[in-house]
Structures are given as structure tokens and as C-alpha cells.
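Interim report, section 4.2 (structural modelling).
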Amino acid sequence: EAGVAQSPRYKIIEKRQSVAFWCNPISGHATLYWYQQILGQGPKLLIQFQNNGVVDDSQLPKDRFSAERLKGVDSTLKIQPAKLEDSAVYLCASSLVVGPTGELFFGEGSRLTVL
Amino acid sequence: GQNIDQPTEMTATEGAIVQINCTYQTSGFNGLFWYQQHAGEAPTFLSYNVLDGLEEKGRFSSFLSRSKGYSYLLLKELQMKDSASYLCALSGGSYIPTFGRGTSLIVHP
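Predicted structure of the assembly:
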């Protein structure tokens, strides 16, 4: 079974530029999450989708971050304009079920460096 | 809201046993997860507890006490490859997993 796919793996940009990350979850997983992980910290949820609807985006900095999940499968996370503090690994995860036993399957992440 | 607390770093010797603690406060509880994350890699699922008690899975065990807001991950027969960050994650009222900062475990010979 193919895992969660993310691209690009690495991206270096200058502040105020824009960047987009792509995620393809495990086939059949209805729930998709984007997490931000700053070095030395645990993952912080940015947004959760259930199919193509947003369940929670309360911690998404909406003035610069946006995310969409068209057709309930692939998802894109965009940052525009980027700030230095956005340097982090952006992890995409999916789960088969929503609920207490919903184990998350993570992609390898997209490492962003903002100069 | 939710708050999760775990030690920043621990060291242990190969072949030994180590216990990584996690304490939490939450208004709703639907389970506690442990994930392992090697440097530069994605987190991978280790265990899940929703009822009080001990869940054993090979060399790894996880314990939960809901009344005390406390969990621990027990690693036996430590191996060098167990050097990693161990993330405690809480599934609260909305079922959205919230992660702690992680405990960096260093296993030395």
C-alpha cells in the first residue's frame, strides 16, 4: 500500500516569496491533516479536512496561509508571503477514520527554509 | 484547551529500560497516542490508549491513568535504533490529535 506522498521534500525561498506544498493521502483515507513542525517542537495542527470540507483551521494564519482539498483527495498548502518564522517542516497526514482510534499516517514532510 | 507536558530529553544505556512520562490537561478526552520520530523523518504510530491500564506491544508498552492525566511509554531492552523523539499526542473532544513537544531519547552503548 502506498503511503502519504508529499512534494517538494525541500524548498528554500526568500521572505515575502510564495511557496506551495502538495500532498496525496493514502487511498481511501477521508481525513487529511496539515501540521507545522518547527525544529525541536512537536507537530502543530494547521488544518484538518474531512473529504473536501474543513473541520478545523483555527490555528491556520489565514492572512498568509491557505489550503484546499479539491475532490476530497489531494491537498495543497500555500504560504504567501512567507516570513522567516515559517521555516519548518510541513507534515501531511491522513487517517482512515475520524475518531479516537484514528491513527495518523504521515508523509515524509516538506522542509521549508525562509531566508 | 489542552496542555501536554513531557521531558525534553532523556538518556539511557543500550539493553536497559526507560520510561517516558507524559502529563496532560484537557476538557475532553478520547484517547492518547504515542508516536516515534527519528531525526529528519515523519512520526510513526507506536501505541494508543483510551482506557486505564497497560497496553503491551513487543518491547514497547504504554500506560494510561485518566484520573491523573498521566501516561507513560516504557521501552525495554533498549537498542541504539531506539534513539529518537517520542511524541505524546492527545485526542480531545474534537478527535483532533494534539502533540506535545516530544522527548528526545538518546541511547548510548
